[in-house]
Amino acid sequence: MLTAKPGGNAMSDLEPIDEPLPSIDAEEIEPRFRAVVGRGGERRGIRLERIYWDGLNRMSTLGKMTTADLVHYTASQMPESGNLASLLRVLSLKWALRRLDTVEDISSMANLNAIIQASPSPTILLTQDKKVQLFNDPFLAMLRQRLPYGDAAQLTRGLRFSIDTHIEDAIATLSMNKGKTLNTGFSVTIGSQTMKGQINLALAPTHEKPMLIGYISRF
Question: Are 95 and 55 in contact (CB under 8 A)?
């Protein structure tokens, strides 16, 4: 059963999530030597851990250049007393953190709220712990039309929202089928009044925790 939080479409603070740190195996910390040959034939021998080589490969691929070109670029910025391997590690991590900042900004709750509010159809955000985290004005208008029950605060405070599919199963299905949606039934109950309909679910583009955006298609 999903319980709506009072307060209309205002955003609520999410509880912090303890995210487990990744494990590290011996192979990942073993430095790997590679000979990199630049365009001018200059040969450099570099020893880096695998994760840094992976990062450099991703950087060069997205930058439409070779890893050798990337190494040459990095070497051109190195001070006389600098260490090329250390500089490549810094560059790799700096690039990854910059991309992480961009992704976290795009997938913030503020942007997610904007997506929900921009929808012309009744739209809600469902959390994995079975709560309606956000909703838009068309959703509230739908409730007022079909389930007249006092003011908005009373309406949302007494609201019970449920979907026909277990939310954990819905998240798992959508996670395995990227870019897909899932249509299922829903019901809303306020006091003794109940309405039913269909809702299209999609994974919410957020890093906070697994959530679903629900676009109500029929009621």
Answer: yes
CA separation for the pair 156, 151 (Å, rounded): 9
Name the residue range of residue 59's domain.
31-106
Q: Which residues of 170-190 are buried (b: 16+ CB within 10 A; e: fewer)?
A: bbeebeeeeeeebeeebebbb
Clarify whether residues 123 and 204 are in a common domain. yes
What CATH number did the domain enclosing 156 receive? 3.30.450.20
Q: Choose the final residue of a domain: 106, 138, 160.
A: 106
List pLDDT tens digits, range 95-151.
999 999 999 988 999 999 999 999 999 999 999 888 889 999 999 899 888 887 666
d(CA 73, CA 34): 17
Query: Under a CB-based contact definition with an 8 Å cutoff, are residues 138 and 116 in contact?
Result: no
Instruction: Give tens-digit pLDDT for 46-67.
Output: 999 999 999 999 999 998 988 8
Please check whether residue 142 lies inside any domain of the structure: yes
Of 71, 91, 106, the last residue of a domain is: 106
SS3 201: strand
pLDDT digits (tens, 9 = 90+) for 186-214: 999 887 888 999 999 999 998 778 999 99
Closest CA to 216 of 124, 136, 112: 124
